[in-house]
Write a structure and sequence with these properties.
By secondary structure, this protein is an all-alpha fold. The protein has helices at 17-29, 36-51, 65-80.
Length: 81
């Protein structure tokens, strides 16, 4: 590619309507508050599971790692119905 040429990058807009609703319901059932930052982390973990065969959750103690994957586990059960 020459320096005068430019590549176009297309960003896909993903509709997470059903996923967001299921995250909200799961949090409510588990007695959790669905704070925007936590919901974003759940979506990030979900997206990671779509493109990886295995993953490891790392972070500080009491950072929400276990709760995040448990919420996603419940979300999967809700969306499978």
């Amino acid at each position: 590619m020459r320096s005068t040429e430019r590549e176009l990058v297309y960003v896909l807009q993903v509709d997470y309507g059903n996923l967001l609703q299921a995250i909200q319901e799961s949090c409510q059932e588990m007695g959790l508050q669905a704070v925007d930052s936590f919901v974003a982390k759940c979506i990030q973990l979900y997206e990671t599971t779509l493109v990886r065969h295995g993953l490891m959750l790392v972070g500080p103690t009491m950072g929400g790692k276990t709760v995040c994957y448990r919420v996603l586990q419940k979300v999967g059960a809700l969306l499978a119905k």
